[in-house]
Amino acid sequence: xxxxxxxxxxxxxxxxxxxxxxxxxxxxxxxxxxxxxxxxxxxxxxxxxxxxxxxxxxxxxxxxxxxxxxxxxxxxxxxxxxxxxxxxxxxxxxxxxxxxxxxxxxxxxxxxxxxxxxxxxxxxxxxxxxxxxxxxxxxxxxxxxxxxxxxxxxxxxxxxxxxxxxxxxxxxxxxxxxxxxxxxxxxxxxxxxxxxxxxxxxxxxxxxxxxxxxxxxxxxxxxxxxxxxxxxxxxxxxxxxxxxxxxxxxxxxxxxxxxxxxxxxxxxxxxxxxxxxxxxxxxxxxxxxxxxxxxxxxxxxxxxxxxxxxxxxxxxxxxxxxxxxxxxxxxxxxxxxxxxxxxxxxxxxxxxxxxxxxxxxxxxxxxxxxxxxxxxxxxxxxxxxxxxxxxxxxxxxxxxxxxxxxxxxxxxxxxxxxxxxxxxxxxxxxxxxxxxxxxxxxxxxxxxxxxxxxxxxxxxxxxxxxxxxxxxxxxxxxxxxxxxxxxxxxxxxxxxxxxxxxxxxxxxxxxxxxxxxxxxxxxxxxxxxxxxxxxxxxxxxxxxxxxxxxxxxxxxxxxxxxxxxxxxxxxxxx
Length: 574
Prior knowledge:
574 residues, alpha+beta, six-stranded antiparallel beta sheet, 26 helices
């Protein structure tokens, strides 16, 4: 298992070796290399004058080979080679036709071209220094690049504490940026770069009477394409409608066993095991419940956070990693999940924004963006009390977090408010939290996490569906439920979403108590100068106006501290 790096630099082969990579190929100003670590990097691939390296999994290879015709590479060729041939022959329209998960670097004449898949299932980063350009699927590799003088990027700290993930191009490393999904970034020898979009969702609403049937066909295609050939498939099953419909379709379409996996936090914690067990029995899967005690979370948290290229303030990171390990131990190589239902079809996280719009009193163009930030209910409102005066002063001239979401929430590409909310959710939380977390944690166990509800054609169908069919009265994701009503018990289809209730506060008061105190009040944390020690102490004691979300906010601060330690990041860049 490996990841990749690419350089356009003076002595590029030396730059590859400097980050600890194996040199694959070097010619002119370019060099490509493979890095140790969880991933599926392969190459080099060549097509005409082009050379590439990438992490590429395609789900419509047959269709793409038919488009290439006689120019297609031999049968059985790696998916990365097929994708490179598409680029060579058709340019970005060829890449847009691909259905898959990919991050690809191409040496194209004097430029280094970076491609990230439509929805962001694979990650890709780039940076510039006096030596030239570097790109990699590993942020840790760029952190090790001696030519890059980097440090903590304070605006990204604020963004993380606001969203619980990083919603755009910025990373926590100053000068290191992420390629956005559906984009092609071209790095030029003179140190400049240019960006093109090869796919973005469009609001092309049609009046067809059979939206549910059309969606059902695409859901079946999306699941079928993601099933592994000749082996069992795993499905991560929570018992909600999204993972349940993926389970039902996998059971219907796969000709090998379907194994389902659910999480329990013990007998004293709320759970949805009754629902997931009902779905497993209804679909005839081999079902396994994995119990995750708080002591295990405490023991595994630091290492798990270190697997992520950017932190996520999600208390399910360790349980997700343990699920992936269980899947791998049972011999599967592919795990399907139900991620994507909310950002693609509309879930309860949109309701605060819809209510705001009903009673909106602020006519300012960016009021909607500010309300969206408030709806996250993370640490944004606490920043004046949490961040040190020096940090707040340094952030005064930087664009605020609302800048990440405001462009999506104005009249433009999407006219319907619900579609604007789905668009921003897809392009922020979907691409920079959900998909990237799943990919990193599953890859760490040598399996591939696949999300059928993030399928490009399914997304296109969702944005072609009238908003009233996605939020029908008070019924969320109505069209999605109707499309699979015949596959699942009505108890599953019609129940309201409750979400997985994670006992964060119990963990922080119990097995994580010592870790939280030791890390957040340590000299290293104080020397970094981000947080007011008195505020952190108060939060650890449960003081102030944090309840009932005290645990979630502390979790964000702890996750950030663990990530910064794992990547050896000190204070902000001078």
